[in-house]
Records
---
Amino acid sequence: MVQINFAKKEVNCKLVYYGPGLSGKTTNLEIIYQKAPEKSKGKMTSVATEGDRTLFFDFLPLDIGKVGGMNTKFQLYTVPGQVYYNSTRKLVLQGVDGLIFVADSQKDKMDENIESLQNLAENLKEQGIEITEIPLIIQFNKRDLPNIFSIEEMNAKLNKLNVPTTQAVAFKGEGVFPTLKLAAATVLERLNKKYTPKTSGASAPSIPKVVADINGAKLSFSDFEKFCLNHYRLSGKKEPSGGVKLSKPEKEKYLSLFVNNYMVKLASKEQDISVEQHELSAHIEKIVAKFGSKEKFIQYLKDRKLTENDYKDEAVTRILASKLLAGIIPDHKEKTVPTEKQLQAFYEKNKGKFKGTYDQEKRKIRAHILKMNNQKIMEQMYQSLRNEAEIKTFL
Ligand SMILES: Nc1nc2c(ncn2[C@@H]2O[C@H](COP(=O)(O)OP(=O)(O)OP(=O)(O)O)[C@@H](O)[C@H]2O)c(=O)[nH]1
Ligand SMILES: [Mg+2]
């Protein structure tokens, strides 16, 4: 995720080189590393390689100097292109700000290009990102080889999204920097749009309103407002015709949730915890079961002006949270199971409210206490995550 530090006037973006095996991703990075001026580049790290195949990723930090008054840094990554390293690709993709798809121009590699681009779209979607929404360019590489498609053919077959393209002979260094420049420009242009109020026509980066600062990372007010609206709608409350107006305590509650969710994502990233597609599907199936059918679930969301993706983002966070919980409070299961004593005490205390005998009401009480205990334990986990961070909020 792009990090903007206004105090230090610093922008930090993550660019990922994606594409099928042997298309030339690592080569692009090697050329940049060889040719970039000494003072602007960090160390290039290749994590796990076998011959010239990338097994994990390559990484190169690059300082491109001042852009719009901000010191701008890029973290360049490559993914392993080989089909079976998909979980590694998903990890490398986390928090991506912009993508360079390195395509192999050879005719017999077109199927692999298409499959890899498809795979990119799927992996982004799991993170709640539409491929059409993220800065993406395509580099047509290996233009030196004999059996290649023309640029028109490459565009027709591979560039259905109609994104900007470049041509390259990466191993000779041709086209490598123009590609990087185009990608950088595309990402920075997007940033400008995101952080410039719509009323002002100027394109200079302006300071967004910040609702929270976590370890120096600024969470924007507009993201928070969107979060509130989504959660209000997800909670099933009826939306007033004049739009949702939250009271101060409600806003505070949502902000606490917002920060918790951020902490969960941050901790998951640090611990390399991610959500697999099948886990997400299983989670959603459980919800769908409660609604009776997928159609009913979708209709429920639709009625609340929500999409499946709005729900998925929440689902991913919940799955991540439960995975983190296992690490932070290993005995959480024992802690949440209601004891007989707890059940009885609850019945005695609320006797007036129950119609049935203890035995008749026991099941309901157990479910209720389990829910409360779960909430308590999650609260403990959030607290322990928060304890490790420096958090400021501005409501
Ligand atoms: N002919 C030709 N060969 C190239 C070009 N660019 C890269 N290569 C060669 O293609 C081979 C694979 O390049 P890499 O950069 O390692 O490919 P990769 O995309 O990182 O591959 P994975 O790590 O397996 O995903 C190397 O032998 C490169 O020298 C090019 O433009 N033309
Ligand atoms: Mg590689």
---
Amino acid sequence: MADLPYRIVIGLEVHVQLLTQTKLFCGCSTRFGQPPNSATCPVCLGLPGALPVMNRRAFDLAVKAALALNCRIASFTKWDRKNYYYPDLPKNYQISQYDLPFSSDGHLDIQTPEGTKRIGIIRAHLEEDAGKLLHEEGGSGKDSLVDLNRTGTPLLEIVSQPELSAPEEAKAYLEELRLLLKALEISDCEMQEGSLRCDANVNIHVPHADGVAATPIVEVKNLNSFRAVERAIKFEANRQYGQFQSDGKKLGDRGVSKATAGWDDVRGVTVVQRRKEEASDYRYFPDPDLVPIEVDSAWIAEVRALLGELPAAQRTRLQSQYALSAYDTEVITRQGRPFVAYFEELARGCGDAAEAKNWLTNEILQTLNDRKSDVRAFPQPADAIAELIREAKATGLNKQRARDVYAHMVSEGGTAKEVIKKLGFTPVTDEGQLRDIVRRAMAANAKAVTDFKNGKVKAADAIKGAVMRETKGMARTEMVQQILLEELQRA
Ligand SMILES: [Zn+2]
């Protein structure tokens, strides 16, 4: 970014849906794709007199995420009402956390071309999700439908410090965050299904006569992919530079306030929509229906014990323990913990980490992608593939044959030994047997034999080809060569 005439300042607000069975304050199911408005009850519909009860599992998951993000967990936290009107918000307020979030002051390390960079986390707090408005296609254009299934689903909001200084860093931050939350089974982080949403606060610092000028901050919303995050930040920074050149407006100037913009992915532009609401616009106040939560050290210790090995530590260990490259380690860990466990079992089972890595990142990953499936649903356990790797080595099975055996094992089942036998990939090592095959091939290719005798050395290739076909390539080439020469001289 050194060639830009300004420095970009980015802070990200990420919302992730927690992997709970039920909603944050009622027992309704959070399963994706249910018939509209079927997963609702008086609590999440906001009917008069219905009282919320906090989902303990959601709180535990949130604490787990905050600990993994090195946050401080507050010993006392409470719920607040954020008041606003929107058609997908039946209560006219959202239950969130305002001045006493359950966690704060954490950090996440990301990889940049310059090395590891630590990004501060201001806070992570819990809140409930709103419903969804559906704008019917081909309708009058005036009507919208509302689906309240999502209303009350637990969301964890993670707010970073404005310490990201390039679009690529924003993407790296999101990738690392997703890896962490998926590994800990806190969220499935599917941007397409809305279980991970991201808003980017962007402004730029421009060298100026009186030092450095900061442009007004714009919060860019509606970012539906990591790629969109990168593109939108790049566009918005450049737009702000143009704007600053023309009007010179700076952060802190009278009448300058934070604005909200939407990202139009098709046109590739940000569209500034409105003045951003201030906290005072929402008339926050403590929710009188919910009791505050006191978190003691025993509770934190209980959740901390569930963390296990975090992705960053896992990468370092795999790299040194199995002598893998940083790239291969990244490919393996990105697939999640069950995949890493499969790799380790395979490496142990076949006694060759490099081969295990090759099979896993080529064949097995390809199979999983083709089937759109997870390693947990892979039909062959790690020790079965380890046997294949060992057998291929012991019998001199070439890579193509080994792949054929693999494909058969995956589609039809069976052990490596069984499939090798079934496909006739048993090596032909018996000299007498091979000599018989050579003689038969010579008898069937009488003309080639005559040509060879008349000095056309190349003619022997046709006979050799016939032998290799007959043995399905399972005879050693040098052995075939030698027997064939002997037999041709004798003919
Ligand atoms: Zn409900």
